[in-house]
Predict the structure of Rh family, C glycoprotein, like 1.
Amino acid sequence: MLTASLKSQLSEGLPEERSEHRQKKVIKMGNCCERAANFFGPQKNTYIRVSLPAVCFVWQIAMVVLFGVFIRYDEESDEKGWNEFKKSHNITSNIENDFYFRYPSFQDVHVMIFVGFGFLMTFLKRYSFGGVGFNFLIAAFGLQWALLMQGWFHALDPVTGKITIGIESLINADFCCAGSLIAYGALLGKVSPVQLMVVTLFGVTLFAVEEYIILDLFHCRDAGGAMVIHTFGGYYGLAISWVLYRPNLNLSKRLNGSVYHSDLFAMIGALFLWMFWPSFNSAITNHGAGQHRTVINTYLALASCVLTTFAISSMSQKKGKLDMVHIQNASLAAGVAMGTAAELMITPYGSIIVGFCCGIISTFGYLYVTPFLEKKLKLQDTCGIHNLHAVPGMLGGFVGAIVAATATEEIYGKEGLIETFDLTGKFENRTMSTQGGYQAAGTCVAIAFGLVGGVCVGFILRFPIWGDPADDFCFDDEAYWELPEDEETIPPVLEYNNHMVNKHHDTHESQFSLEES
Amino acid sequence: MLTASLKSQLSEGLPEERSEHRQKKVIKMGNCCERAANFFGPQKNTYIRVSLPAVCFVWQIAMVVLFGVFIRYDEESDEKGWNEFKKSHNITSNIENDFYFRYPSFQDVHVMIFVGFGFLMTFLKRYSFGGVGFNFLIAAFGLQWALLMQGWFHALDPVTGKITIGIESLINADFCCAGSLIAYGALLGKVSPVQLMVVTLFGVTLFAVEEYIILDLFHCRDAGGAMVIHTFGGYYGLAISWVLYRPNLNLSKRLNGSVYHSDLFAMIGALFLWMFWPSFNSAITNHGAGQHRTVINTYLALASCVLTTFAISSMSQKKGKLDMVHIQNASLAAGVAMGTAAELMITPYGSIIVGFCCGIISTFGYLYVTPFLEKKLKLQDTCGIHNLHAVPGMLGGFVGAIVAATATEEIYGKEGLIETFDLTGKFENRTMSTQGGYQAAGTCVAIAFGLVGGVCVGFILRFPIWGDPADDFCFDDEAYWELPEDEETIPPVLEYNNHMVNKHHDTHESQFSLEES
Amino acid sequence: MLTASLKSQLSEGLPEERSEHRQKKVIKMGNCCERAANFFGPQKNTYIRVSLPAVCFVWQIAMVVLFGVFIRYDEESDEKGWNEFKKSHNITSNIENDFYFRYPSFQDVHVMIFVGFGFLMTFLKRYSFGGVGFNFLIAAFGLQWALLMQGWFHALDPVTGKITIGIESLINADFCCAGSLIAYGALLGKVSPVQLMVVTLFGVTLFAVEEYIILDLFHCRDAGGAMVIHTFGGYYGLAISWVLYRPNLNLSKRLNGSVYHSDLFAMIGALFLWMFWPSFNSAITNHGAGQHRTVINTYLALASCVLTTFAISSMSQKKGKLDMVHIQNASLAAGVAMGTAAELMITPYGSIIVGFCCGIISTFGYLYVTPFLEKKLKLQDTCGIHNLHAVPGMLGGFVGAIVAATATEEIYGKEGLIETFDLTGKFENRTMSTQGGYQAAGTCVAIAFGLVGGVCVGFILRFPIWGDPADDFCFDDEAYWELPEDEETIPPVLEYNNHMVNKHHDTHESQFSLEES
């Protein structure tokens, strides 16, 4: 009896956190039981020991074979070819090699793909490994597949049957991956790496086709890929996520959020994207004034976007506090929206206006549209790619159409107009308003490819063979990663230090604690 | 009675940390009460829901209008202009566009401004969001305002009344922001974002004026901005901080320090600053040997500085332990101090000597001068910009003066001397010793502008309308950011994992814990 | 008696973690006692307050003197020299300065050295400061010493007795440091900074000699340093670590591992290495097609390597979970292995095959070879440099030998073959198979220098004067860094926030807690 009373006293004496903790434990055990029950019924299993290595090996071996058959160096990277090219084009200096025009931009784009996208997706408290790690995996696969797909559509030599690649091909391959990485943003935490490989395989394939239609058939300009990358990638991801809707995702709610330091990791990604977006948009524009102007326009639009993002973020909260989700994402929307128009003569203030609007639209999207989509359309969009890529991309497509339609010889010069829109060959007589119309049509093609392709791929991903996590096991690196021991179990170093300082005291204390225990 | 005895037993049984924790809680509650009392009297309020959006919107709309009126592409980024420029200058290759000389350096500078300065200021344990986030905000605003201010002073076409911008303007705009970001270093954690916008508005304005005096009227050389950026920015920040002295800042003492991982985030910023400082100093120097030499000099000085910083840091502690504050900051001082002299023929060993001295001076500053300033001059300098920017910048100005004064035709060649110091037009007959004198005078102008401007801006910031935090609410992101839940409340994933493994045991335990709770 | 009973009750009532914690404390105290005992006997002492500053100052002063005697600007960075060079070589544009060919690659290499290597070594839970901080120190020293050593061997003007440096020298100096930083990987956490300075002093010296033999005497091609950097650095580190074997290292076992966020910091380093490896391999290759091709080859090999790394990592674990150690390290092995062959015409699919194999070999190394080395060969290799540098480097050397031996005029063109292998002067008549033989021999030289040099340096490091930590004090920043207070002691901000919201409740609670305590 005394024991009982003591027990109750003791449990009263225990700190609140502990009892809370215990309650949590109980809740979790509830989940465990449920899961144990599921074990013998139909259920999800994150076992990927066969499927992931199989997919990686099969596809990588396919790459070896296909590269062996198709891919060769182009004339600027081939030793013999470049020497001949220099002679035939009467070039005296190696600095004329396309490499020196494109390499700094390429490396910036490369950083955006791997550190930018990768770390932007580390914001979840317990899915940072998955965010940056799977981004790494699918980008590394995607760029190889992209070199082949884009090569077949754009650079296949009809005589030799070979694809020749150079620095511009590498940039385009990185761009092509970006489409699938954007789609990953909507799926973050809810799919297995094997599913992501499938998303990337089809994503890159669809990308190459829509890019062929938009850039080659429609002859649109889209250097920074507002249409072909962001609009397509955004709607592709949203459509997949819509098909893969999880009604019980709130079982993983406790992990669908950030912690202080995970938000800082995400900020690394966000800043590298923001800083290098001028390189992204200018990487494959025309040499000279084209690249130069694209950088200026993107730089200004992004700066302007930051201010309106902060403004709307602050206005949206009762006390005017800022939300890291907006700062990390909405401030990038201007880069997306300038994807098409940045290389055109949109003027500096035009760029600032685009940035101004994007910050507002994108932040509103995070505040109202994403929750609306989830509730009403049953569309779970982990990173809010709807507001960062889909809508700004679409907007960018239409802005590009308007700027193209209003282009005149007066502004560009006769030569400049032809160069900028590449009005040669069969497009020699295209008027600017026609060009504008095609640009707008291109945007619609990108949306259509994204939505239709995404729905199809979504259904493929619903086969129960891909090892995706159960609804109560989402947003959790535990599913696919061997995790290190918890931070809380680090032996308290400082305490240790104190012991070293107060050595004599320790000796006594240690005896005491030895007795006590 | 038994209860009482038990209670005392229980509290004895409780670990020391807990009772400490409780004590802290009580102290904090004391603060709370005090604050609650203040609520009805005169007090600080961090409510910025109206002021921050208002400032952002008004200023950004002003930017749209002013850019519309004034800013145009320059002849190297304008489609028509570049084609005409190539013809008129007989240029055959696009690689001659200034873009290809400057773009890699520009991107490095851009990284320094946003990731370098931003992450260097994440070192505080609970002000990392504010460090990197507000840095982002004010740099994005500052660079737009800088393009206008610097344009009016340096690039206004008297005929058309327009400012034309190119890649060099973007670099200069980034530089101009740096002045205000340095000032932010002294104010970190003690001001509101609205105040920072004011600091930046005036900072950029003052910068453009002092830069006009130093570079145009005095015709000084200062490519890396030892004078115009670092000396000015440093003293500007110190003067503001002096006016905004908070006698009760020790109420926030518990948050004025780092934790293990916040120091690592800061190290990212420090390293990007350190690595890219050669680009910073060389970004706008003369093409060819000028840029080349600047990089070599800065690289050597920085390397040398690291060793003396480690040496002094180790010597200063009883057991020879190193201090992260020194490593993150003092090792950068050489970059600042080489800001003026790096483009001159200071010789490689001259650069190493400058770095050698800077590491010592700056580390001593952190050890003795910053505490002294705080105690005796009532100057609270959160990041120690006195030791990283103000003093090394001033030093750099005088080093530059000496190197300029000792320049000879023998070293530079006749042509080289004219090119390096731009001794054309009305400066054709200036002697090197005169040049040195002007360089020294320029440093004094930078100090004066910083101090006087800072005091004035400081008084503006003392109006009680800016939403700055109370003395016990400094260094706390809680004031301006919606923070994610605490890390300690992450459900322990490993435990969870263990449950999965020992599923059968769990079932029993769970029953037990259900009973118990 | 009641007290005793209560005590036992109390200790029963305490949560398990706590008692575990206490047990740990006791164990640690055991260590303390042991250490206290050692204090009066022979023991390790991490006191470096004299030795570290002494080494830093002496060596840095030596640098000043030696730079003053030997180092000058080269003709492309000297103001007068460049003007004369332009005239004598009939160059009209500054863009022909080597600076514009190399600077973007140089900055990428610089990032790899300081952020790449530095952050890759932050993965340990309590040695992140040491990882990134000591990397910073030794690289900053090493690059100065490298400029001298490499200058003496490669660039000493026999007439003037001076070494002239330019951008390529800076890249080579960074490369030279890389050798010692790789060695640091094997020693991470087990040596003092003073020892690391010794490792670097000898490492750079040995590097310069073996580089002279391999590149100058044997006339090998090794632009990315598979042989001279990675093979040498890897075996150098392994040999030192073997000599410094610590039989009781398991006393520090609790700290020899990562935590969640330290793995993310390491991922920053890994990704920057991965992304910029194309720049590393191409930084000093021939202008034009040479640099261009090297980038393509390295890019493809790295992408391919990622997929096989993920595959093997997943296969190796019972449930198919991925291991961050593999992802961070093995995915980089392809960059190492392409160090020699990347500039040759290895073909795109050849690169992919190399990457394919490297991912497998390196991951297997982490799984089986490192534990085997530790158990059987008594070789403790903290970062697994055996699998990331030593073996892939050796492999890369032999791949390079094969590709060189099979080079033909048909593939390279006559001119191209001469340029690529620099077959001029006394090497004019060397056949390709001879070249291949020398390449293979060069790899063996690198291994020999690494092993023999490492053993010698290892014995030097065993003198008991360097301040290295005791076996139970390894992997602990506590030894050499003033650490900030523990994260767990941050006052709980959210709780604080709750108090602000529920102000009235607080008042009561605070009274209560005042009473209670």
